[in-house]
Amino acid sequence: MWSAIASLAESVVGIFVDPPEVKAAKVQAKVRKIELNGDWEVEQAKASATSWKDEGALLVFLGIVVACFIPDAQPYVREGFDMLATLPEWYVNMLYMMIAASFGIRLPNMINKIRK
Q1: How far apart are CA 70 and CA 80, in angstroms?
Q2: Treating both helix axes as pointing N-terminal to C-terminal, what angle do 53-67 and 89-102 enclose, rounded to 10 degrees?
Q3: Tens digit of pLDDT at every position of the chain (116 positions)
Q4: Nearest to 103 by CA among 47, 58, 36, 38
Q5: How many whole angstroms separate alpha carbon 75 and alpha carbon 81?
Q6: Residue 56 and residue 102 in contact, taking contact as beta carbons nearer than 8 Å
Q7: What is the pLDDT of residue 96?
Q8: How far apart are CA 100 and CA 104, in angstroms?
């Protein structure tokens, strides 16, 4: 009788505890994912070495800040921000992600880290 209970308990525990092969496969998958992410980041750095995209985005943002100090431009800046406030949330979120990605910030990874 005790052997039947022990066998049943072992089966139940086996469902929740991974065998060594499964654990090894999970570790290999994580290592491969890290390697692929590293390769992606290296390729991105190489591609952005000759790109003006980041500098262009920075100039746009700084231009808006400078325009805030020019009296003739202030009404246009205010109207622009009022208009931006009316954009749908999904569009604003996409803008955030595109801008962050252009500066090398990977939001999905950050979100996943926050959730853990």
Answers
A1: 15
A2: 120
A3: 556 565 655 655 555 555 666 666 776 777 676 666 656 666 666 666 666 777 787 888 899 999 999 999 999 999 999 999 999 999 988 888 887 777 777 666 666 666 66
A4: 58
A5: 10
A6: no
A7: 84
A8: 6
Separation CA 30–CA 40 (nearest Å): 15
Structure tokens at 113: 């880290």
